[in-house]
Amino acid sequence: MAGAGGSLGLVGVRLDQDGVLRRYIPFGQDKEGRFVYSLALEAVAKLQGADLPNRPLAGGDVQFRGGARVKAPGGRFLVNFRGGPGTYPTWQAGDVLRGAEDFSSRLKDKIVFIGVTDPSSEDLLPTPYSGTQRMAGVEFHAAAADTILSDSFIGATPGYQRIILVALVAIAAMALGRFPRPLYGFGGAVLLLAGLTGGWFGLFAGADYLLPLAGPLAALVSGYGVALADRVGVEQLEKWQARSMLSRYLPPDIVKEMLKNPVDAQLGSKRAELSVLFSDIRGFTSLSEKLDPEVVVNLLNQYLTVMTEIIFRHGGTVDKFEGDGILVFFGAPQYHENHPEQAVRTAIEMRDRLDELQDLWQERSDEPLRIGVAIHTGEVMVGNIGSSRRMDYTVIGDTVNLAARLQDLTKEYGASVLISGTTRERVKHMSRLRSLGSVDIRGRQQQVDLYEVEGVASESDIPAH
Question: Which residues make Cβ contacts (< 8 Å) with residue 461, sequence separation at least 6?
């Protein structure tokens, strides 16, 4: 064969780290340091009548003298496969040698590779297109020669560009994971994924350029996942903080409702009809002067704990504690048609539950624990009122002022629970009431009808219809 003008060509191949054959080694060196070229390059040189150089170029490319140029950065190049095993015509060598038929037209001006394709041979290797089958080593050399002849070398992204691309994708993915509207963020991530895969396929199919896909996809998934997990964690923490704060003045079911609809909890207020309750401890100011502050706070905390439980049980919202005074409203943020009844039932239970605090109270005071409660129903402005940096969920309006004035009258009339005529119209069917007549209220031109609540009406007290 050497006498007929033949030459030696390397046939060794090297699998990638994942065990797949993608890259072709165009040259090697013998013991004396001379460069020896691979089978595909020797075959292409013979076909083109070109000579191979004594040595490749500095970057790894091989320039045929009077022929093709093999682009092999780093001494290897990606084979541009046209398909899987069997892409190139294959005939049995025995049939050709026996002359069973005329193969001259099929072999003329062609490169003919001779090798083993038997499935039992060890020279069968996986390629990106082989699937469950494997490609014979001789066909891999044919695919490499085809890449050289068609000048369809696959371009690859330099290392520094891969790093930049991965970093940009990761930043974009994290931004999308933190997008104010999660659905839009997810849609953006899907579009980014489609852009990456579409760009990879388009560049590879149309320009023989291999855009790195594994790294950017990993950056997309991990960046979006980390940002989303962090966002969920922050939101859960904020919800926990909001729940902790709201639970101080709202019943648990109302807190849950507000957290489900956070838009309703934004800065703003609205007009609404509510029932406002004011309560106050009789003689608390004089008691505070006699006792140490620590004792006063301890007594007050125990009293307020019991009262708050009662308020929450009946669906009330604690607006604020003003020393021993409590401002409560019913009907917001969760509206109930029977909010006047809720307020009256709360006041009665607050009065009746004082017995369990009497022993502790009278250990430190000569006077029994007594409270005055007043309720008025009317329109108020309710909502988060304040600035963007500091706000309170509260009520303001004439209804609140009147409830406070009525509470002052509990001492004058010696009554535990007083309600206005407006409230009376809404609770007369379920309460035992005593009329105290019409009274003048400081700052108001019209008199207010006043009623004392003696208790909740029993079935025998309710008139038959």
Answer: 432
